[in-house]
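User: Show me an example of a complex going from sequences to structure tokens.

Assistant: Sure. Here are the input components:
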Amino acid sequence: MGLFQRKQDTQQGTPEEAAAVALLFDDAFREELKDRGRLHFERVINENAALFKQDLDATVAHVNTELRQRVARQLDSQFEEINKVNAQLKEHIAKQLDDRFAEYDKTLREAQDAALQALQRSAQALEEQHRQLGLALERSIASQDAMLTGALEENKARIASIKDAQNVALQSLSQSAQAVQEQHQQLSVLLQKGVSDQQDMLVDAFENNMAQIIEHYLLQAVGDQYDLKAQLPSIIKQMEASKKAIVDDIAL
Amino acid sequence: MTEATATHATYKLPPNVVSKVDLAHLISDAERIDNELTTSAVHTRTNTAIEAELSTSERLTAFLQVNDLQFSNNSSDRMDIIRGLRRLKDSAPVVHMTFAVEADYESLGQLVAWLRSNVHPQAIIATGLQPALIAGVYLRTSNSVHDLSLRGKIKGGRDVLIKELVEATRG
């Protein structure tokens, strides 16, 4: 430390003085002096620090008190302002709410009135419709009644006519059955006659065709078996038989 | 060669001249010979005669023989014969004979010989074929027909045949 650093000798003494000083102020003595100075300095520092602390505590207490008072005053004023603002705000909100409520009441009243009017109109319309439906139903029932009565009468007439037609049809059927029976008898007679005619026709056809078949058979069987030489005597013989007729023909 | 003494009305036809076609061939042969003789006469007159032998057909030779005729150098006599043959071709009575089979020439010769000896000496035949006749001949002249075929006989007896068939089928 510079504080306890050995100071430079500023006075130039004699060497004997210097040697006496050196002998008095040896290292042990110097170290003892340093310890004594250090203790003294610490004691001074501690004393000053205690005083300073005491002053500082008093100052802090004073400042705290002042600060508390000031803060209390400011808080009071702030609280007053806040209360004031709150009162104004409450008053304003109450007023607005009153206005709103009044408006809502008005609107609600109007809506209620409109709804009531609409309900009344609907009720009147329903009543009118109900009345008209009743009238239409009465008219419809009356017309249905009339129509059903007409249909019933018409059906009665139809049934009566159907019965008449059935009677006529039964008579016609009985007549038809009789006619069919007569036709059946006529057909039977005609059929028997037809069968007889067809039988005769088949017999005639058989007679004619059989003759032709036999001729054809003879043609097939005999035709190729005799040449003209073999037939010549027979031909001349027949020509002899017809000689007179041939001569007469040529002579004409 | 002698002159022609017969006329077409008295001409006799040989057996190998049966039909009108044969008669036409006979006339054609006669005309050919006449032409050759006429040509020969012209060559003789112009001294350009060519030695050529006349060849007469068997049909013409037979005709000349049966009629006792000869082709002379006189062309007018030859023309009389040819003219007579042409008239004969037009006037000869034709008998149409239809057979069931093909007629051979020999049989036709016999038939025409019978016709010429029994009906007319200048008769000729026109033949036909009809197998439906079965057998025999269907003879037709210019005026009438004579059905001498087996078919004609069967047809004539058809009523009898039908009657017998019906009796047979009806038991």
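The lines above are the inputs; the final block is the predicted structure for all two components together. Residues 27-222 of chain A form the longest helix (196 residues).
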